[in-house]
Design goal:
Number of strands: 26
Strand order of the largest sheet: 3-4-2-5-6-1-7
CATH architecture of the largest domain: 3-Layer(aba) Sandwich
CATH topology of the largest domain: Rossmann fold
Helix content: 25-40%
Number of helices: 33
Oligomer: single chain
Shape: globular
Distance between the termini: 48 Å
Structural class: alpha/beta
CATH superfamily of the largest domain: P-loop containing nucleotide triphosphate hydrolases
Length: 905
């Protein structure tokens, strides 16, 4: 079927059940020419997210013509740390159609779906996974790893600024040394980065543009392309796709930009803001409807919910939903999946028997396809008001009219704190009063009227009405070089990346709060480094955390302690504090609530016994009894069994072992052996439980699904595989990757040769002893069923040994890409960027040979990074890593019985 052109109209209908609009056709033509516009500017409700299927069709079209120059990855970034599942769901539905083209529900599109599927499949290296990788990197969902299995496979990655941006800057949140460079290479090359609602995060837009300039200057192999999406931009750009006057002739465009929205202002003082909003919202009780309520402050949202529930009586809980950025991720996800009020807001066609209310902060302004009937809100800046107006009567329709009531207080600055601008709010109101006036005194806030008004506003006036643009920190070569040195764990003086993702803001400092049962097991005897290692292994996922201002967290925790002490005056609770670098400190609740104790940007891990969490997922010091789901660390999403993890208590005594599941802690559920089907991944020694029985020890053990082992650390996958077989597999996989990506011949050769030599150092006796293979007559192992404790190696790194062996090979020394070959060997586990630790040296070579090789590692890294660019070199490294990981899951490996207990190293 190759060579037959793909028709855009039919392909778009096949994936979306919609005919493309004219602007979508214009964007498709730009993408087929590999010329994505810098900016896509459209009124809300016109489907900006359709850039995803448009890119996919353009990529398939290029594949059918035998010339792919469009990036194979589309990275779709949302600006708020909240719900982004909708975009993921849309993409998954498209993939379902491509995988099952003959399904009766869409069989009329079968031919074009099969054609697209074949073309997209032809792009992959055939390593593992479906024809399109789909991954969500927002923290609340565990990363399914699809996006990094096959670097040639088309991939759609949906994530937040923090998750994507930190990885792009070699400092991925939650990433260890091994994955920082790996992720930076895969994110920062061969990718179209689509920044949705870009005007809300100008600092990140600036960062992306700076990186684009750096990559062009450094001649990166496959530099990123950037496209910003917005309903309005702070600044204009000639290279854009936007709505044209003739586009309004299309029925769907005309219907949506004409969606009727009548806006009224209501003045009151700040003391009566909540009451006024509740009053206006309840006016919609007469006619059953879906009412959206927006306020700036989370505490105001909570007060509104409380007053509405009081007014509505017994069925208030069923008619009100709360969505704020301070709700714990677990409850927020459950709201999205299960809450009938929220689900009704998403469904344009749903009808309600009684009026329902969704009360939200800015967490619900972006990235959610809400279509409410009416809107009540406080006054805010122009950029936020545009977002809010876009969530009501979103699709329009005959006879549908949205009432928009905006409450303006006399002192906006006092009511909203220093994070907002009174002048911007005043300017916004002045602009909105220039909307066309209706006969009843309201303003016409339809998308057409708003769009035309915005076109008349000059850039200076618009900037005054937008929220403050944070001060931008300059991105420099020195900074990028420092971040790319990922083998230096504690680089003195380098800044964290957050300020470069969001700019220097006046936002108040924040703190995270988490509940874990194991915290109560730690004591002053527990080593802080051991606690850090535990949370590195059993890491805190975003769905476990809630986020709030530090002052609010401290106030709530102080109230929580006071309420506990009303029952027991000596009550106190151990807590674990984790700073931004993951360093751990064991403290107590009574200490951290002291006035001068610093909790800014820390994660506070509370024991479950402390309580403090409401069923809505809100931190509340008056709640001293723990709810049922207060510890959600082991929650596994549906069909996500591979991410299963369990925490167990292990007691070792003279008469054997006792295993107890931490979340049950019941004497009648004690087991004599570890759980079936899981592998021991981390082990922390707790204090001796019985003072007079020295031979009894107690451990906290993390058990995980064996499938995760090759992802967590491919070096120590728990299975049996000879060095010869593993090398053969890696060589074969990297050959497929190079061919699928159509790399230059010499680069393909370099990858293959590096694969051939990357693990030669594992043949050393010390490493074979580490892998329980002391039989010198047996074939050397690359992967073992079990491993000894890492100190056995004395710091030796097998890849440093591999490097020394490869350096001695004349054919490698004479290869045009000898520098790259040797670096890929040295760097495939995250070292050599730029160095190895001194104790990594290889005793099979002389001290002088070791010293010379170590110095040359650093020089070589500098030369290659200058030649390929920071992300280009990282990408080449990631290609070998992808092959290594794939080989570590190879069918040629012999699985280990599930009950073995060796610990991850």
């Amino acid at each position: 079927m190759s060579g037959t052109n793909i028709q855009f109209d039919s392909a778009f209908q096949a994936l979306t059940d919609c005919s493309p609009m004219r602007w979508q056709d214009r964007l498709y033509k730009r993408l087929t020419e590999s010329r994505p516009p810098k900016i896509l500017v459209l009124p809300t409700g016109l489907g900006k997210t359709s850039v995803i299927p448009i890119w996919l069709i353009a990529l398939a079209s290029q594949a059918s013509n035998g010339s792919v120059s469009l990036p194979r990855k589309l990275i779709y970034i949302v600006n708020r740390r909240t719900v982004v599942d909708q975009a993921t769901d849309v993409v998954k539905k498209m993939r379902t159609r491509l995988l099952d083209p003959d399904n009766p529900s869409w069989e009329k599109h079968a031919q074009v779906l099969k054609k697209m599927a074949n073309e997209l499949q032809s792009l992959s290296a055939g390593l593992d996974g479906p024809l399109i990788a789909i991954s969500t990197l927002r923290g609340e969902l565990a990363d399914n790893e699809e996006w990094k299995k096959d670097p040639a496979r088309p991939a759609i990655i949906i994530g937040t600024i923090d998750m994507i941006g930190s990885k792009l800057l070699f400092r991925g949140y939650g990433d260890g040394q091994y994955y920082r460079t790996h992720h930076a290479g895969l994110i920062g090359q061969d990718a179209l980065i689509v920044h949705d609602e870009a005007h809300l995060a100008p600092a990140f837009s600036d960062l992306l543009r700076d990186i684009e300039v750096f990559q062009q200057k450094d001649c990166d192999i496959r530099p990123i392309k950037i496209m910003e999406l917005s309903a309005t931009m702070r600044e204009g750009n000639d290279d854009s796709v936007s709505l044209m006057p003739e586009d309004e002739e299309e029925e769907i465009v005309a219907e949506r930009i004409s969606a009727a929205k009548n806006l009224r202002f209501h003045e009151t003082n700040s003391e009566h803001l909540i009451a006024k909003i509740v009053e206006l919202a309840q006016r919609h009780e007469i006619t059953p409807s879906k009412v959206l309520i927006y306020v700036y402050k989370p505490e105001d949202a909570q007060k509104i919910c409380k007053q509405l529930r009081s007014q509505l009586g017994s069925d208030g809980d069923n008619r009100i939903a709360l969505l704020t950025g301070t709700i714990r991720g677990y409850e927020r996800d459950r709201l999205v999946r299960e809450n009938p009020v929220y689900r009704n807001m998403l469904n344009h066609e749903s009808k309600v028997e009684k009026t329902v209310y969704l009360v939200s902060t800015s967490a619900g302004e972006v990235g959610i396809d809400i279509d409410a009937d009416h809107l009540v809100c406080d006054m805010t800046t122009l950029d936020s008001m545009i977002q809010r107006l876009g969530r009501v009567n979103r699709r329009g329709g005959k006879g549908r009219l949205a009432k928009v009531d905006v409450v303006v207080t006399q002192s906006e600055a006092e009511s909203k704190g220093e994070a907002t601008n009174e002048q911007a709010i005043v300017a916004t109101r002045a602009i909105l009063t220039r909307l066309p006036c209706n006969d009843d005194g309201s303003y016409d806030a339809s998308p057409r009227s708003l769009w035309k008004l915005l076109e008349k506003i000059n850039a200076e006036e618009r900037e005054k009405a937008f929220s403050n643009k944070p001060m931008r920190l300059p991105l420099t070569d020195i900074l990028l070089d420092a971040w790319s040195l990922s083998s230096i764990r504690n680089f003195p003086g380098y800044p964290e990346v957050a300020a470069y993702l969001h700019g220097l803001t006046n936002d108040r400092p924040e703190t995270y709060v988490v509940w874990r049962k194991e915290v109560s097991l730690f004591s002053t005897d527990t080593d802080s480094e051991a606690i850090r290692e535990w949370f590195d292994a059993c890491r805190i996922e975003s769905y476990e955390r809630l986020r709030d201002y530090t002052s609010s967290v401290k106030k709530a925790l102080q109230k929580l302690l006071e309420n506990h002490r009303k029952k027991d005056k000596d009550c106190d609770f151990p807590v674990v504090l984790l700073n931004e670098r993951g360093e751990a400190e064991l403290s107590y609740l009574s200490k951290i609530v002291e006035k001068n104790f610093n909790l800014e940007y820390h994660t506070v891990v509370l024991p479950v016994e402390a309580g403090g969490l409401t069923r809505d997922g809100i931190l509340d010091g008056s709640v001293i009894e723990p709810i049922t789901d207060i510890d959600v660390a082991e929650i596994v999403h549906e069909k996500d069994e591979k991410n299963r993890r369990e925490r167990w208590l292990l007691i070792e005594a003279k008469d054997g072992e006792q295993w107890t599941r931490l979340l049950t802690d019941r004497a009648d559920e004690v087991e004599p052996r570890p759980p079936q089907g899981l592998r021991k991944w981390a082990d922390i020694l707790l204090k001796l439980p019985f003072e007079n029985e020295d031979e009894v020890t107690e451990h906290l053990v993390l058990m995980i699904n064996p499938q995760q082992s090759s992802i967590g650390d491919p070096e120590t996958v728990r299975a049996s595989q000879t060095l010869e077989q593993h090398t053969k597999d890696v060589e074969e996989y990297v050959k497929k990757i190079g061919k699928a990506l159509n790399l230059d011949r010499e680069l393909q050769e370099a990858l293959v040769i590096a694969a051939r030599w990357h693990d030669k150092g594992k043949a050393r006796p010390i490493w074979q002893y580490f892998a329980y293979n002391s039989d010198t007559t047996a074939p050397p192992l690359a992967k073992s069923e079990k491993y000894r404790q890492p100190p056995i190696l004395g710091g030796f790194r097998h890849e440093f040994g591999s490097l020394l062996d490869a350096t001695a090979q004349e054919n490698i020394r004479n290869h045009p890409e000898h520098d790259l070959i040797l670096h890929l060997i040295a760097a495939h586990h995250g070292w050599a960027r730029p160095h190895f630790e001194p104790n990594a040296r290889d005793s099979a070579h002389t001290p002088d040979e070791n010293e010379e090789a170590a110095i040359e590692v650093m020089r070589r890294f500098g030369r290659l990074q200058q030649r390929f660019g920071r992300w280009g070199l990282a990408w080449l490294e990631s290609l070998l890593r992808c092959a290594d990981i794939a080989a570590s899951k190879s069918p040629s490996m012999v699985p280990v019985p599930a009950e073995s207990e060796e610990v991850k190293t």
